[in-house]
Design goal:
The chain has one helix and 29 strands. It has one helix at residues 2-24, and strands at residues 35-45, 52-54, 59-64, 67-72, 78-83, 90-92, 98-101, 106-110, 116-120, 126-132, 137-142, 148-152, 157-162, 168-173, 178-183, 188-193, 198-204, 212-218, 223-228, 233-238, 244-249, 254-260, 265-270, 274-282, 285-293, 300-304, 309-317, 331-334, 357-366.
Length: 367
């Protein structure tokens, strides 16, 4: 009996020690680290910018050159293309299933058939684009006036424009009528009343970060994660008043970011071939959880909300004489956890790919 008592006390002491060690070292009890779980390559020509996951339709969109390449979001297999379009990014209305490219003119297309419905002339220089769920409208972002052109996705009509006082890069909605847009040239966050289509406030980054290009929003706790290029920093703000809560280091050359409410993690993809994962332990506690090596110039990303995957893209150019015309449309997809179909070559800025042939690399990051 005494032996059993002593043994029980021993087990209790060991358990208490393990719990204490776990508390002192959160990494010991943290989730498994992120890794590249799937990759795909497809040969083609032309530059790229943004990648977009249509989570309801389970498709992935990558504008490249004069077309929008479409892939199955779950398998990465090619699913077709929207031709004679191109542009920087794509947004899809989950209700009408109408898609839009941020080109000039905009291309409005049927996301099921991939047929063009019509083109829509707009002002400025369309760059980023996103679907705002509270008002069910599409925002087209431009570095020139008008900074935002708002589209009714039902018929493609222009419902208004918004002056932000700066060059927008990425936007996020709290789904209750407020939209946050980072202004790259002002080092500010513009706050927009989605119903009134009016900018109602500007949040300064207070000199803690400049040239913001990525944005994540924890809508539940009203927290903004602003990914900056100069310096390479994530500035964490209160979404209600713009109060700076924290600053954290990220990789160099961010151009996209986001927040996953299921995992309570913000993320930022960078030109230097890294993906930074930031954990929100509480509304007042934030840490860099992981810096994952991806691929050079994989600077834009999107979130697959079903699988908690982050999808990134980059280009791997090849010399023109080495690519025969008949293989210019071939593709190669590696299985989950597989290696790249081709070794990495010399990279170039994805936006300046123009008509040079090369591989579009798609990377899927998950646990």
């Amino acid at each position: 009996m005494n032996l059993q008592v002593h043994f029980s006390r021993f087990l209790f002491a060991v358990g208490a020690a393990l719990l204490a060690a776990s508390a002192l070292n959160p990494a010991a009890s943290a989730a498994a680290p992120y890794k590249i779980v799937n990759t795909s390559q497809i040969m083609g020509a032309g530059g790229i910018d943004y990648v977009y996951a249509d989570n309801e339709g389970r498709r992935l969109y990558v504008p490249r050159g004069r077309q929008i390449l479409v892939f199955d979001l779950d398998t990465l297999k090619p699913a077709g293309a929207v031709t004679n379009s191109g542009g920087h990014g794509v947004a899809v209305d989950p209700k009408t299933r109408h898609g839009f490219s941020s080109s000039n003119p905009l291309t409005m297309f049927d996301s099921k058939t991939l047929e063009t419905i019509k083109t829509i002339p707009v002002g400025g220089r369309p760059d980023g684009i996103f679907f705002e769920p509270a008002t069910e409208r599409v925002y087209v972002l431009s570095h020139e006036a008008p900074n935002v052109t708002v589209i009714d996705p039902r018929d493609g009509s222009i419902t208004g424009t918004i002056d932000l006082g700066g060059a927008p890069e990425q936007a996020a909605s709290d789904e209750k009528g407020r939209v946050y847009i980072d202004l790259e040239d002002q080092s500010q966050i513009a706050v927009v009343d989605a119903k009134a289509l009016k900018c109602v406030a500007h949040f300064s980054l207070g000199g803690q970060g400049g040239a913001p290009a990525g944005l994540g929003l924890d809508a539940k706790n009203h927290i903004l994660f602003v990914m900056c290029r100069n310096p390479a920093t994530c500035v964490v703000l209160g979404a209600d008043d713009g109060r700076i809560l924290a600053t954290l280091p990220i990789g160099n050359g961010t151009d996209s970011g986001g927040f996953n409410p299921k995992t309570m993690e913000a993320f930022s993809s960078q030109l230097d071939g890294t993906l930074t994962i930031i954990k929100e332990n509480s509304p007042t506690n934030f840490v860099v959880e992981q810096t994952l090596t991806t691929m050079p110039l994989a600077k834009t990303c999107t979130l697959d909300t079903k699988n908690n995957h982050i999808v990134l893209i980059t280009l791997e150019p090849v010399a023109a004489p080495d690519v025969a015309p008949e293989v210019a449309a071939t593709s190669a997809t590696s299985p989950a956890g597989g290696e790249q179909a081709r070794p990495l070559g010399k990279r170039l800025d994805p936006r300046r790919g123009r008509n040079r042939p090369g591989f579009l690399d798609i990377l899927v990051v998950g646990r």
